[in-house]
Amino acid sequence: MKSCEKNGVLNDFFNIYTKAIMKETMFFTLISIACLINPNCNADDPELDKEKTRILKVPTDFPTIARAAEHSKDGDWIILSPGKYYENTIEINKAVTVSSEWKLKGDESKIDETIIDAGDKTLFIIKANGVEISGFNIINGDHTLDISANVTIMHNHFVNNLDAMSFESGSGGHAAYNTVENDKDDGLDIDIGSDKNNIGSDILVEHNTIINSSDDGIEIRLFSYPNQNINYIIRENIVIGSKNAGIQLISYDKYTGKVFHIHHNIFRDCKIGLGCMEGSNTSEDLSGASKMDEQIYFYNNTIVGNKMGATGGNNIIALNNIIEENELGGFKRFGINSAIINNLFYKNGNGDFIELNDAVLRSGNIFSKDPLLDKTTFTPAINSPCVNAGKDKYELNGIVFLKIDSKYIVGSAPDIGAIEYK
Fold it and tell me: Distance (Å, rounded) from C-alpha 144 to C-alpha 183?
């Protein structure tokens, strides 16, 4: 990549990479501490201090969730018995856990047995750091979880909502192990940074399954002012059947300092796996984002059976991805400081590379070889060309910009794609 041979650009890359690693390390340290304070465990776990943690039961102690929230204090658990609840517009302004009996015993059957119907309105308006919403079957909401704090949203089943989870300015935290079905807009709408006076914090999105969203599986707006410096980690999710993008990144054409690690995800049957947009445009047109300079690390994803694989911005590092049977093509409009390294392309209509900038670094890619994936799990067969064929890092001129965590490597090298052969 000729442009990356200049010291100024290399220094920019190095600064971005160093900041991303420092932020990710700090982020996961905070996540580890948070898990100790408010663990995803059952009530028999010794970490639950029964002398200090009050359990407020609905409807035994309080007739409604709203009443329980009103009478709660920091550290309380509000636990709902199985049943169907018709509530909405509940403000959560204390650091409480709101969950089903799943939280007490880990019985997953309690999740779908504990239904909250939001009646086409917002269910929870969350304004306090440290809130956890978990273990519910949540239906018929409109911007169902309106979040403006650092929170944990996990092990919920969202059905027929409009924007199941909305992370607004001032928000951040952890969204994990949720299933979102038939969302009327975006399964996960992330607007961190919309208010420059209350930007928000880093976010980890992992192990979610998002099916048949009417717009995007995950929609992220970057907004238009500098020094937001938010780190987004989006990993090990499955996004199926989004009418627009599996993940859509919406640029406002000004550099924000945001950094994206998007890895080990599966995108299937969407309009596009990863769609980068410019000019604050959210109507997916497969055009790419020629003015988007944020750093995107896009690695070890499996992108199968979409209209198109991915469009890029100017700084996207694509490593170890499987791009298979995408009707309109593989990668389109990756910009000047981008690299496409060690990916496998197979049976993509209209070409594997479309309108790439001439400076994009391309090396080690595999073409026209069947990845031999299981059609359900997307695990490669033992004789797949993907097995042990990935790279464990991306480096340029002796500088390492990306290193794959060893937990994702089973054999002598990482596999290509989202799932390791085991």
Answer: 11
Q: Is residue 119 part of a domain?
A: no
- Which 3 state secondary structure label does DSSP give 344? strand
Q: How confident is the model at residue 163 (pLDDT cuts 50, 70, 90)?
A: very high
Domain count, the chain: 1
Residue 183 belongs to a domain: yes
Residue-level pLDDT at 369: 98
What's the N-to-C CA distance of the chain in angstroms? 35
Which of 131, 145, 127, 147 has the alpha carbon at shortest distance from 37? 131
Render the burial of 122-149: b for 16+ CB within 10 Å, e for the rest.
bbbbbbbbbbbbbbbbbbbbbbbbbbbb
Structure tokens at 337: 């400081």
Q: Residues 343-372: what's their mean pLDDT?
A: 98
Whether residue 263 lies inside any domain: the answer is yes
Cross-strand bridge partners of residue 300 = none
Do 334 and 352 touch, CB atoms closer than 8 A? no
Identify which has the larger pLDDT, 8 or 74: 74
Helix, strand, or coil (residue 121): strand
Instruction: Count CB atoms within 10 A of the CB of residue 392.
Output: 16
Residue 371 has pLDDT above 60, yes or no: yes
Q: Give the H/E segment covering residue 231.
A: strand 231-235
Q: What does the pLDDT look like over 125-139, one tens digit per residue?
A: 999 999 999 999 999
Q: How crowded is the C-beta side of 235, counted as CA atoms within 13 Å?
A: 16
Q: Per-residue pLDDT for 14 more than 70?
A: no
DSSP label of 415: P
Q: Please state, in angstroms and rounded to a whole number, the distance separating the CA atoms of residues 212 and 210.
A: 7
The pLDDT tens digits for 249-264 are 999 999 999 999 999 9
Q: Is the peptide bond before 59 cis (omega within 30 degrees of 0)?
A: yes
Full domain range(s) for residue 345: 2-37+163-408
